[in-house]
Amino acid sequence: MTLDARILGIETSCDETAAAVVDSRGAAHASVISSQLDIHSLYGGVVPELASREHLRNIVPVVRQALQEADCAYRDLAAVAVTAGPGLAGALLVGITYAKGISFAAGIPLIGVNHLEGHIHAVLLDASREPQEIEFPALALIVSGGHTHLYLAERGEDGLRYHLLARTRDDAIGEAYDKVAVTLGFGYPGGPVIDKLAAYGAPAKEPFTIPSMKGNPLDFSFSGYKTAAIRWREARSLDGEIQARRELRERCGAPTLEQWLEVTPQETLDLLASFQRTAVDNIEANCRAALAQTGARSLIVSGGVSCNSALRARFRDPRFPVPAWFPEPHLSTDNAVMIAAAAFPRLARKEFSGYSLNPQPGMRLEAE
Ligand code: KG4
Ligand code: ZN
Asked: Which of 41, 54, 256, 277 is the most buried (most CB within 10 A)?
């Protein structure tokens, strides 16, 4: 592998069609993301059939744009990397099929990448530019709309090895945020809006309970307090304020904080603050317990919910026992830079995928 070997990364596991060109030093020469948010927000969540159709529509122009921006031809690439799973089968299939075509036509290796490993590499990419290196073993927490997983990541001879410590038994954390937001008329995706508005509410107002988990106490469950938030809304006549928020979204598309505050009474702000406080307490408590159990020396946090300001503040608090590392916000949500970055160790080991590579919707990261 030459020092400036470049990999084309392709990501289509959920609702973003993304392509990026990254070099072996971790520099992104191009990163193009075509979001389908406008389409799925009409339905309050990702509709798998629509996602596949949009990926089909977008994949060619997105990859072409990434190569143009990087001033790169197929023959300049050392490999093409693509998300193999986990994700939506039909959505993954679009990226994988296109990547196979590029690999075959250009005569370059194909590398199937685990999306979750991609999220972890989004942090390693940034951290490589910090003077202080991430210390291993590390806890790796992935919190997004589709995943809530906690791993122990250890350095092995052939790269990082992962052991699953905990996962959600029901909703992913981002999914719980999104459902609460949709119920209250804030639209989809709701995480960023709840995050901003929660700062204006009283976090102890609604007493949500963090469930204690039988079996593995490190596991997560968000559906209990998500449902409690939905019941809270059903027990009140909030039709007027919810309608006002729907109209605001229709009028503005992306309302400002001030506009949201005008149509959100204090009682609702308190509910959002209480929901967010419970979620962050829950995640912090489980991470602290996992640190005590494993002796891990740092914490890596990635996925869309790692943008959450309360979560970042909690883990960056000097009282948190180990250093916490986050990706830059633009690398927190789904992107292809992280997929290309995660492929470099495989390129170095010449660990290539064959053309039998298929979508693996339930792909696991941990060693079997
Ligand atoms: O990683 P991502 O782009 O896609 C998945 O793989 O799911 O994550 C999207 C999720 C959505 O559920 C969104 O509501 C949530 O991340 N999210 C947030 C914040 N920003 C995005 N949740 C809470 N606070 C935020 N600031
Ligand atoms: Zn993701």
From this structure: 54
Which CATH code for domain 173-322?
A: 3.30.420.40
Closest-lying ligand to the alpha carbon of 83?
2
What pLDDT, on a 0 to 100 scale, did the predictor assign at position 284? 98
d(C-alpha 206, C-alpha 228), whole Å: 10
Task: Specify the ligand 1 atom closest to the Cα of 87.
Answer: 6
Given this model, what pLDDT does residue 4 score?
Answer: 84
Q: What is the pTM of this model?
A: 0.94
Encode pLDDT of 254-310 as tens digits.
899 999 999 999 999 999 999 999 999 999 999 999 999 999 999 999 999 999 999
Cα of 113 to ligand 2 centre, how many Å?
12
Per-chain residues with Cβ under 5 A from ion ligand 2: 144, 334
Domain extents in the chain:
6-121+331-349, 173-322
Å from CA of 253 to ligand 1 middle: 18
Ligand 1: list residues with CB < 6 Å.
Answer: 14, 144-146, 174, 177-178, 189-192, 195, 303-305, 307-308, 333-334
339 Cα: distance to centroid of ligand 2 (angstroms) = 10
* pLDDT > 90 fraction of the chain, expressed in percent and rounded: 87
Strand partners, 30: 21
Show the low-confidence residues of the chain (pLDDT under 50).
none
Among residues 79, 91, 92, 75, the alpha carbon closest in space to that of 20 is found at 79
- Looking at ligand 1, which residue's alpha carbon is closest to its atom 26? 308
CATH 1.10.1040.10 fits 6-121+331-349, yes or no: no
